[in-house]
Amino acid sequence: MAPRYAQEAKNFKLLGHDSSAAFGGGSLVEVKNGYAYVGSVGGSSFNAPEGFTVHDVSDPRKPHKVAEFRAPQGVHCHKLRLVGDDLLYVNSEKLAGDKGKDGRGGLYIFDIKNPREPKQVGFYDMPGSGPHRFGIDHKRNLALLPCDAPGWNKRVIWTLDLKNPLKPEIVSIWGLPWQKKEDVALGNDPMPADNTCTLHGPPVIRGNRMYAAFWGGGIAVIDCTDIAKMDLVGHINWSPPFPGGTHTCWPIGDKPYLVVTDEARARQNYWDAQFMWIVDIREETNPIPVSNFFPDRERYFNRGGRFGAHNILEEITTEGPWANIVFLTYFNAGLRAVDVSDVLRPKEVGYFVPETPETQEAIQSNDIGRDEHGRLYLIDRWGAGMHIVEYNG
Questions:
Q1: Could you confirm whether domain 8-391 is CATH 2.60.120.560?
Q2: Domains of the chain: which residue ranges?
Q3: Which helix (H) or strand (E) holds 298?
Q4: Taking the model in full, what pTM does it have?
């Protein structure tokens, strides 16, 4: 049977494909020294084991799986990050409801000196349902995680010092002022409603400012001059009228603008929402959306699966060959390359939509990573695994 839709590409070249990545359905991907580590979405809108897989990508035309980790019962391990030279942190997030009652929330710590044989060397316990999409600030040697915390309503920002990455230490726990409630019991809510004010992440630091996305609670500009005692500088929330799901908030180089994505949810596609925004923060106390981007709705909206934004390549530079280019995953519209040099008029300059396999209804491009050679790793969450591509725009 022919694929439902053929591959579509502009300014991208497909180098290799490995359908076994994350057992078919993946989330975050990290790549280093010829190996790709891919977290699995497991049973979250897919049917696969919980855990992660490791792939030899030294020859990008012949990627292949060399190792895997299958999570214990009750947890989701779909977010992972490289730490230092030879460690991998992997989230242990309790599954929703009764499925997660025996789960242990926190971070797995793996030694990956030998990528073909990841070895668990630690575990960092965290409360509630455990961490979701977290980040590592390699320059400052910090981990930034969304997680529940005593005295706070829903997930807030945990900042961990990684001087000893086997034994992280808490620097601060901070949330939006209206999340502070001393009598709130810790919950197990890994799949929040669209209107829930809960940190999604990962927060990112630029200079003495931190930027963070709070799902149904908008985005925040935070003074982190003293990370142990942070202060809210500016905030905006466009939900309502737009449905919640604010996923990622990232600065454009050193410009006073942010790229923000609202995640398309599995429940419903929206014709006029869940896209990528540009937010003006020239006046930090009053962030204002000034433009947005979405691909051709007539072409993709009814292809099946989610139509809408998800994540970006978490690095937007204003210098070099990729200056002002945002690499954006858009579920059934694949990977989009968007030029934001004119922040008022984002312009699409490339795209890569993998062919739809016979075994799945639609492409669902979920996440994007890169290696030191500039190759991009596009991860599908519905069965197509990992596509390795070059951008030549």
A1: no
A2: 8-391
A3: helix 297-300
A4: 0.97
